[in-house]
Fold this protein.
Amino acid sequence: MTRTHTQGPQQSYEKPVPRPDPGTMPYWMGLRRHELIYQQCRACQNRFAPYQPNCPNCWSDDVEDCKSAGRGTIYTFSIVHRAPVPAYRPDLPYAVAIVQLTEGPYYTTNIIGCPVDEIRIGMPVEVIFDDVTDQITLAKFKPAA
């Protein structure tokens, strides 16, 4: 898995920060370890993300955590030109994408590390880990090397 990440927790992160709950804590702890976690249902073998207590295919609660290789392709994307809150203005324009991991699950994320006009559906990408606070790490994707 790609271990590229930002330079550590940012001193003042002004964007909204996820609030992990007990049900999603294994996912967030994986990101803190710089591991991208998806889940697989033991009943029907469905692989899925985001992290949840039941399989979205058969509703079984017999699911297991799996570590992704951190690679995938862009399934679809959108370029954001208007910031939803002022903290996002310095990032404009930026890309929000759905990446299909090589293991199969789809992952909603940001594409960074390239101009937005170079982003394409089918583009190979790899995960990077952005340590935005001491407690929260976000998974983002960049074009694959």
Q: What stands out?
A: Residues 25-32 form the longest helix (8 residues). The two ends are 12 Å apart (CA to CA). The first strand starts at residue 37 and ends at 41. Strands lie at 37-41, 47-48, 63-67, 71-80, 94-101, 106-111, 124-131, 137-143.
